[in-house]
Design a protein that fits this description.
With 166 residues, the chain is mainly α. The chain has helices spanning 3-6, 19-50, 62-92, 98-131, 134-165.
């Protein structure tokens, strides 16, 4: 992409691109991003689902079991949101609603990434809490939460604002 295409004008699309073509391109881009995310979510979620079946599970305290529940529910929400665009596309296929599908899919992707971030932090806190103190796990979990927030939200928003000023 050239620097001209990266600025606010890129919101309008590529030169000569119809609204339908832009919606198709945006949907393909979004699905590719979700494919990358989906694998990680499914692996982490699958692992958490097996944890209660492990022998050491009975030794978990109430705090650790709470973290497991929060992590599993967060990853269930993440999985649901990340797969939702496929369901929407299938249900609305050939109804000339691609832009609406893309807009809804964008919301689902953001919600899925939010739930994924919570699932990552709580899973990490659970694991670290088994080998470190709860306070150390909480501190490290918070640090990862801040890192996720900075890389997934703050940095892109700042970059977008910088580009919009041009």
């Amino acid at each position: 992409m050239t620097s001209q295409q990266e600025g606010p004008a890129s919101v309008e699309g590529r030169p000569g691109e119809t609204d339908e073509q832009r919606a198709d391109r945006n949907f393909i881009d979004l699905l590719q991003e979700l494919r990358v995310t989906q694998t990680g979510v499914q692996i982490l979620f699958g692992f958490l689902l097996t944890l209660p079946l492990q022998a050491r599970f009975a030794q978990l305290d109430r705090y650790e079991k709470s973290l497991l529940v929060i992590a599993a529910l967060s990853l269930a929400v993440a999985t649901t949101c990340i797969i939702a665009p496929v369901a929407w596309h299938r249900a609305l296929f050939r109804h000339q609603l691609k832009k609406e599908i893309v807009d809804a899919s964008n919301v689902f992707a953001k919600a899925g990434l939010t739930a994924l971030a919570l699932g990552i932090v709580t899973s990490l806190m659970l694991m670290l809490g088994l080998v470190l103190s709860h306070w150390a796990a909480l501190g490290l979990g918070a640090a990862i939460g801040v890192l996720l927030l900075m890389l997934w939200v703050v940095s892109p928003v700042l970059r977008r604002r910088e580009l919009q000023k041009r």
